[in-house]
Design brief:
about 750 residues, alpha+beta, Kinesin, three-stranded antiparallel sheet, about 65% helix, binds adenosine-5'-triphosphate, microtubule binding, coiled coil, Kinesin_motor_dom, phosphoprotein
């Protein structure tokens, strides 16, 4: 701008000079006119005329030069404008360069970003691909992503190349423009130097003229010419300054252009390097991309083939499974058939075993002499055993030795376990769906409760039977599902009481099932499902507690009542669909002593009558069953009525006859044993055992039996409860108090904590 202002000052000076020149010319014309008028007859008029002519020419030349100068000025102005334009273009070029630089930076930034993205995507894609090798369902998605991303990368590269191309084109246009400007500048410089040359020549001529004028003595002209020379000198100086300015501008321009060119070149170089880097990256990426594409195609093929292969594999697997299922199912059917056959066989065998042992089995257990009894006068032991035959018992009665043959005789030292061993086959029958009755029969204090319930430290049949049921049920568990329920009932004075109910005083009744099945049931009878020994103990505790709350003296009361533990075992075989239902009746009968001996009166007499009635009814029922009477008098007592379905049909019965070894109890022992022998000869059910019948007939002719007949006590003609019933009130042992006392002590032991309540 300073240079521009400088140019404007020169123009002003030029204008001033021109106006002064114009003034001088007017003054010259005026002086010429004066000279013409005043010097009409001057001797130097010819010289003056010549000078005038010369002056006119000079004026003309001067004007011509002025015109040239004006043209030069015009040219200078034009050049100045061109320089300004050049400067503007330079500025624009610098601006564009900046823009280009920015664009380049952006492009390089974009490139680096895209490179980073590409690298990270490539890494991700590689990881995804490696994962895809294991995870087939995602392969398609990842390969798709890789495809899309590689296309995006390509596109970004293309865009960067396009931008680079455009920048190069712009740069070449700028270069072309610069070349043209340079050319114009050179031309203007050439014309300017020509003009300068011409000016110098003119000046020389002018100096010549001036010296001539000085020589001629024309001071005015000399003065004016010298002025013109001064002006010209000034003009020349101004022009020199202008040229110097232009030169410096030119140099500046060249320098700027050079710098811009160098910068552009270095930037171009950087861009080229970047491009080369990008190309290199692309080149390095291409193999990876090819590998990826190859992997992708491979995976794609695998994925495409996968459904078909899967379907094929599934079909094959299905076929194999169907085949295996078919084989397994046929094998299973075969096994099931065999299993059913084996089960039936086992059941039949077991039943046969039980049947061979006898559907009614009579065992005898002799209790030991208790500690308190050894000192008594009549504490003599009258029972002896056959060491070679465990089915024989000898009883010394008034000097005579009576022999009793039963199914088995347990001596005094027999343990609870040994007793139960003889019983457990019946428990198993119950699981198979048979009804079983186990009775403990005998006079008061003979050990019935001990055998059935036992003592806490040595449990009796009741608890052992339930434990065995649990273990058996557990063994059969995979196929069979069993439900074991228990009820406890007491029959006292022909009244049925629910021992597990909320109200133990409530009397129960026995009724016919309304479904017409002919089955009996006890409405309101409480049943508990038991699954463990703890459950049994809880149920027994509750039963004992309820039994104790209903009476004033539990020991006496329990001696005069029948206690029944009814266990129902219902089974279901899920594989065969079989159902079984068996009932195990564990009965602790009331004392069987004869009323005649006790001499009881009042309520005691009624108790004894009720006991005898029910025991006689039991004898009558067994007798009727043995004799295969069309009518079996089950309804004659609550006991037989309640046990009707467990005594008839294919049921099993076990009578455990308890005997006291004491001499004082000998007559009751004889009665009990005779009753047992009669019961033993009875057969229950349709599948009558020939062996049993044969045994019965052989018993009647056997010497042992003869000995029984021979050794029968003279006082008691028929040892069945029926006969005892008929002779009720005639005899009841006066020493019945002794066993009662013993029973009390045992009950206290057996019931333990329950009796406390
Ligand atoms: N086998 C035995 N071993 C040891 N003690 C026994 C045996 N049998 C019975 N006793 C004992 O004899 C006594 C009387 O037995 P238990 O009370 O069982 O007789 P019971 O026949 O049930 O009498 P009740 O008719 O009065 O109920 C008890 O003290 C009992 O412990």
């Amino acid at each position: 701008m300073e240079r521009l202002w400088g140019a404007t000052d020169l123009e002003k000076q030029l204008e001033v000079l021109e106006s002064e020149n114009q003034q001088l010319k007017q003054e010259l014309r005026a002086s010429q006119t004066q000279t013409t008028c005043s010097t009409g007859h001057c001797p130097h008029s010819q010289d003056v005329e010549a000078l005038r002519g010369e002056l006119c020419r000079k004026d003309e030349e001067c004007r011509e030069r002025e015109r040239r100068l004006a043209a030069l000025e015009q040219q200078v102005q034009e050049r100045t404008g061109a320089v300004v334009q050049l400067q503007q273009q330079l500025e624009e070029a610098a601006q564009r360069r900046q823009e280009l630089q920015q664009q380049l930076e952006e492009a390089s930034c974009l490139r680096s970003q895209s490179e980073e993205q590409l690298t990270s995507r490539l890494r991700d894609a590689e990881e995804a691909l490696s994962r895809q090798a294991a995870l087939t369902p995602q392969v398609k998605y990842v390969t798709k992503t890789v495809e899309v991303e590689s296309a995006q990368c390509k596109q970004a590269l293309m865009e960067a190349q396009g931008r680079n191309q455009a920048l190069q084109e712009q740069l070449s246009v700028q270069r072309q423009l610069l070349r043209e400007l340079e050319q114009q500048l050179h031309e203007s410089q050439r014309s300017s130097s020509q003009l300068r040359q011409q000016l110098r020549t003119d000046r020389g001529r002018l100096y010549g003229l001036l010296s001539k004028a000085v020589g001629g003595g024309n001071t005015e002209v000399t003065h004016r010419l010298s002025k013109i020379l001064v002006y010209e000198g000034e003009m020349e100086r101004a022009q020199g300054q202008l040229e110097a300015e232009m030169q410096s501008l030119e140099e500046e321009k060249n320098r700027v252009i050079e710098e811009a060119f160098i910068r552009a070149e270095s930037e171009m170089k950087a861009v080229h390097e970047n491009l080369a880097g990008v190309r290199m990256n692309l080149l390095t990426l291409q193999p990876a991309l090819r590998t990826l594409t190859c992997d992708y195609n491979c995976l794609k093929r695998q994925v495409q083939d996968f459904p078909y292969m899967l379907e094929k594999a599934i079909t094959e697997a299905k076929q194999e499974i169907c085949q295996v299922i078919g084989e397994v199912s046929s094998a299973n059917q075969e096994l099931l058939r065999k299993y059913k056959r084996e089960m039936n066989l086992r059941k039949k065998c077991h039943n046969e075993l039980v049947r061979l042992k006898g559907n009614i089995r009579v065992l005898c257990r002799v209790r030991p002499v208790c500690a308190g009894e050894t000192d008594a006068a009549d504490a003599k032991n009258i029972v002896t055993f056959d060491p070679d035959d465990d089915a024989v018992l000898y009883l010394s009665n008034k000097g005579k030795l009576m022999t009793f043959e039963l199914d088995k005789v347990f001596p005094t030292q027999a343990t609870q376990g040994e007793v139960f061993q003889e019983v457990q086959s019946l428990v198993t029958s119950c699981i198979d769906g048979f009804n079983v009755c186990i009775f403990a029969y005998g006079q008061t204090g003979s050990g019935k409760t001990y055998t059935m319930e036992g003592v806490p430290e040595d449990r009796g049949i009741n608890q052992r039977a339930l434990r065995l049921l649990f273990s058996e049920v557990l063994e059969k568990k995979p196929d069979w599902d069993y439900k074991i329920t228990v009820s406890m009932v007491e029959i006292y004075n022909e009244t049925l009481r629910n021992l597990l109910g909320d109200n133990p005083n409530e009397k129960l009744d026995i009724k016919m099932c309304p479904d017409g099945s002919g089955q009996l049931y006890v409405p309101g009878l409480t049943e508990f499902t038991v699954e463990s020994v703890e459950d049994i103990n809880k149920v027994f505790d509750l039963g004992h507690m309820n039994r104790a709350t209903a009476c004033t003296n539990l020991n006496e009361h329990s001696s005069r009542s029948h206690a029944l533990l009814i266990v129902t075992v219902a089974g279901f075989n899920s594989s065969t669909g079989h159902r079984t239902s068996g009932k195990l009746n564990l009965v602790d009968l009331a004392g069987s002593e004869r009323i005649a001996k006790s001499g009881a009166e009042g309520s005691r007499l009624r108790e004894a009558q009720c006991i005898n009635k029910s025991l006689s009814a039991l004898g009558d029922v067994i007798n009727a069953l043995r004799s295969k009477h069309s009518h079996v008098p089950f309804r004659n007592s609550r006991l037989t009525y309640l046990l009707q379905d467990s005594l008839s049909g294919d049921s099993k019965t076990l009578m455990m006859v308890q005997v006291s070894p004491l001499e004082s109890n000998v007559s009751e022992s004889v009665c009990s044993l005779k009753f047992a022998q009669r019961v033993r000869s009875v057969e229950i059910g349709p599948s009558s055992s020939s062996r049993r019948q044969a045994e019965t007939s052989s018993t009647s002719s056997s010497p042992t039996h003869d000995s029984v007949e021979l050794d029968s006590p003279p006082v008691t003609p028929v040892p069945l409860p029926i006969s005892r019933a008929s002779s009720a009130g005639s005899t009841l042992s006066s020493n019945s108090k002794t066993p009662t006392t013993r029973r009390r002590s045992h009950s206290q032991l057996s019931t333990g904590e329950q009796t406390v309540t």
